[in-house]
Amino acid sequence: MPDKILIVEDDPDMVTALRMPLEANGYEVYVASSGQEGLQKVKEINPDLIILDVMMETTTAGFQVSLQLRSPDPRSEYAPYRHIPILILTAIHTTTSLRFGPDEAYLPVDDFVDKPIDPEVLLNKVRALIERSRAQK
């Protein structure tokens, strides 16, 4: 059974650029075009990995999604999905001098890549995160 990857990204061209190398390497790809739709799809498909854009319906939509998915509250509706690796994909480093990376409290994600992303870099990060996730189960 192929690994399921959920891409939460509002730019159709970026979705295509991500989907093509992933599907060519045997991944089953699902897409959501907003943070809210992404949260809904997480519940529907329980993906093995989430590729999450930062700037969608708001400039910090991706951060909000990651905070909801990683909520430490055991009563959170997303508690069953807290273990899913999150790869943040953003162009924010090209539009601002701000620099940030994974942070348990403020940015609870597993890895971070800047757009545009090289397909080999993408595939290597996806493989590594899924393998690490399996090893922790």
The unreliable regions are: none
The overall average pLDDT, rounded, is 87
Number of strands: 5
CATH third-tier fold name: Rossmann fold
* Secondary-structure element string: EHEHEHEHEH
Main-sheet strand order equals 2-1-3-4-5
CATH class assignment: Alpha Beta
Our estimate of the beta-strand percent is 15-25%
**Tally of alpha and pi helices:** 5
What's the domain count? Answer: 1
Helical proportion, percent range: 40-55%
Oligomer: single chain
Main sheet makeup: 5 strands, parallel
Structural class by sheet pairing and helices: alpha/beta
Query: Globular, elongated, flat, extended or rod-shaped: what is the shape?
Result: globular
Q: What does the radius of gyration come to?
A: 14 Å
CATH superfamily, please? Response regulator
For the termini, the CA-CA separation is 18 Å
The assigned CATH architecture is 3-Layer(aba) Sandwich
How would you characterize the overall build of this protein?
There is one protein chain. By secondary structure, this protein is α/β, with parallel strands linked by helices. The protein is 40% helix and 18% strand. The two termini are 18 Å apart.
